[in-house]
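Task 17 of the worksheet. Students: predict the tertiary structure of the chain below and write it out as structure tokens. Keep your answer in the requested format; marks are given for formatting as well as content.
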Amino acid sequence: MKHRLVVLSISLAIAVVIMSSFASRSALGLVVRACEVNSTLTGSPYPCLKIVRAEAPLSSYVVLREPADKERTILAPLADVPGIEDPRLLAADAPNYFDDAWRERADGLGLRAWKDSPQNFALAINAANWRTQDRLHIHMGCQTPRFHALLKTHATAIESGRFTNLKTRAGWWATFYKAEDLSNMNPLKLVADGVAGARSNMENVVVGVFSSTSADGQHGFYILARIMGENKSRGSAEDMIDPKCTL
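Model answer:
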């Protein structure tokens, strides 16, 4: 018992140190590990909000507040997945982290009303050169006014089930799927197969998923993607997501 308490104290001390400084690109992995150790020893996911263990190693994940910004909520796998470019994420049996994040939206963000009214909820993931961490993480929140306006402006041009080049300065592609959740569509695979040049260049891809309601009242999702290159226009996950949902 004493040994367990010592291990717990050490893991929590590490977590506190990491939570106070997020400068290291490996910090998120250390926080996730601290959550895993604490969950094993005490049943508590602290410093994460939640930990979900699955039979398939890649399918286990945590939900936590971003240490650098306590208002931001993210989902990260327990496994060491560096980012969107990991080829395992496009395999036939790959986990669908976007669906996991969608299902955790109420508990993770403390807004249980979204279970019944999910409009404006948004998820996004950065390209490798925009990440502050060497570990995959999905940002959770609501669409920002800028992206709400972008979707509204191009709504009539966005096709259902097929990516459309919006011909914006930032190079956005978009599609819309009518669905209640993301269980039958993996945004990463859809982007890899539907956006020209994406599959061979996933490390430079930014993906956003926006919950919405069609004109005929059916729930669905806009999926936006762009391939980063010489174009440095705004369009990171942080640009897409309002963590406080102030819209």
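Marker's comment: Confidence is low (pLDDT under 50) at residues 112-116. The two ends are 49 Å apart (CA to CA).
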